[in-house]
């Protein structure tokens, strides 16, 4: 209540004085004092006008022009909110178009993509447009992580495919030609197929989950299957494993802080 009075004391004062003048003018009218009534009623009117002056832009009457400001202000606010929605959609489309264009194969130029994102989002902030782009940032982060994970996944996959080829050779040697134990042959191939050869939909995993951790788990299961069922040992480049672990930590930490070190991963592609 005290805070309200501090902020709106002028409006409260003029309203109070206006009520006093209005009451006095009514009493004068009751007494038949028309001249006095006109003067005090005019004073009451001006008090009420000044008490609500912030609500007016233009008004016409008694030598003044004013227009109801609050209604226009609300219309403007509604228009601004609708425009924010339009701006958000167009910004998202422009950024995601930049992210997806030419990305397959080498990951594309992420310096330019982040520059587009930063310029568009920063431009809206400079204009005082408070638009929540957190969902857009999350989507861009997903593609950014995917493009870091993909070459590591492909190299690890090649190592595992070499191990799988050795396992197939062992199965062929074990059952000879022609194959006499058909059921045993099928069982061994079923063991080999227990872990999928490839990770389908890695980009879809990146959009909703930790793709680096998913690749690590897949490669670990693959390596274990080859060792336990076929006595085939595969060794991964430990630098690649460390890179995947680092990317996984980046994902788990939340929105990515894009650094020069991260961007340099794409410079030599």
Features:
269 residues, mainly alpha, 0% strand
* First-residue to last-residue Cα separation: 65 Å
H/E series: HHHHHHHHHH
Class from helix and strand fractions: mainly alpha
Residue share in helices?
Answer: over 70%
Largest sheet: none
Poorly predicted tracts of residues: 1-7, 56-66
**Computed CA radius of gyration, to the nearest angstrom:** 37 Å
Q: Can you count the beta strands?
A: 0
Strand content: under 5%
In one word, what is the shape?
A: elongated
Q: What number is the mean pLDDT?
A: 78
Number of helices: 10
Can you describe what's shown?
The chain is 73% helix and 0% strand. Mean pLDDT is 78; it is low at 1-7 and 56-66. With 269 residues, the protein is an all-alpha fold. Helix 3 runs antiparallel to helix 4, helix 5 (134-175) crosses helix 7 (202-208) and helix 5 packs antiparallel against helix 9.
Q: How would you concisely characterize the structure shown here?
A:
The protein has 269 residues and is an all-alpha fold.
List the helices and strands and how they pair.
Layout: H1 2-31, H2 34-51, H3 69-100, H4 110-126, H5 134-175, H6 182-192, H7 202-208, H8 211-230, H9 238-253, H10 260-263
Helix pairs in contact: 1-2, 3-4, 3-5, 5-6, 5-7, 5-8, 5-9, 8-9
